[in-house]
Amino acid sequence: MGLELYLDLLSQPCRAVYIFAKKNGIPFELRPVELLKGQHHSDAFAQVNPLKKVPALKDGDFTLAESVAILLYLSRKYEVPDHWYPQDLQARARVDEYLAWQHTALRSSCTRAMWQKMMFPVFLGEQVPPETLASTLAELDRCLQLLEDKFLKDQDFVAGPHISVADLVAITELMHPVSAGCQVFKSRPKLAAWRQRVEAEVGKDLFQEAHAAVMKVKDLPPADPAIKEKLKPSVQGLLQ
């Protein structure tokens, strides 16, 4: 059995892995895992990833969790172009720096913004206190400013003059609040220009393909009671 990727393109890290694999011509079998149906909690998926999260990778008898680990595994195994994860010590360190920062910063605020603005009220039928959403959007704005000032600066891409896995991780995160109607790029011309460069490097068709599902989430019908009960324990933390 060849490479298998367990993904749900509603997940921003899954989108990063999907774009990376497709862009680099890496052959894989897609194993869909529908998060909104709770399929990641199934016993069958737990055999692949006991953490019960996507993305997950299976390569023969080898399994791997965590999107950053998967991206770096693919970049090394398939000897993709150097700019994705540079050999140069300091260039690679810049990519690593962003990947280490984003987990508890941009990732957190983008996920909470999407769920509080759209998923809780529309999909789960739960109203979010206005002050909670306001606090989340303020934190998102702070993280966007850090993305511009600390990482992007006056460069073309997050970690330097060329696109890297850091850019894929960043752009897929930002499309989460965009899908909920947040004007992430509207008053940030530097960030908007960076998005255009990333899309051009990835290819507009692939970019749109990867984001088609999340951009349609606003049109989902409300979840049925069984799904609500299944999802609640794993998403309640996003109201904080």
Supply the key terms.
alpha+beta; 4-stranded mixed sheet; 2 domains; single chain; Glutaredoxin; 10 helices; 240 residues; Glutathione S-transferase Yfyf (Class Pi), Chain A, domain 2
Number of helices: 10
Q: Into how many domains do the coordinates divide? A: 2
How would you write the strand order of the largest sheet? 2-1-3-4
Gap between N and C termini: 42 Å
- Estimate percent helicity: 55-70%
Structural class: alpha+beta
The profile of the biggest β sheet is:
4 strands, mixed
Number of DSSP E strands: 4
> For the record, what CATH class of the largest domain applies?
Mainly Alpha
**Low-confidence spans: pLDDT under 50, at least 5 residues?**
none
Query: Which descriptor suits the 3D outline?
Result: globular
Overall pLDDT confidence: 95
Strand content: 5-15%
CATH topology of the largest domain: Glutathione S-transferase Yfyf (Class Pi), Chain A, domain 2
N-to-C SSE string, H for helix and E for strand: EHEHEEHHHHHHHH
- Which radius of gyration do the C-alpha atoms yield? 18 Å
Task: Report the CATH architecture of the largest domain.
Answer: Up-down Bundle
Pfam family, one: GST_C
Organism: Neomonachus schauinslandi
GO cellular component, one term: cytoplasm
Family: Belongs to the GST superfamily. Theta family.
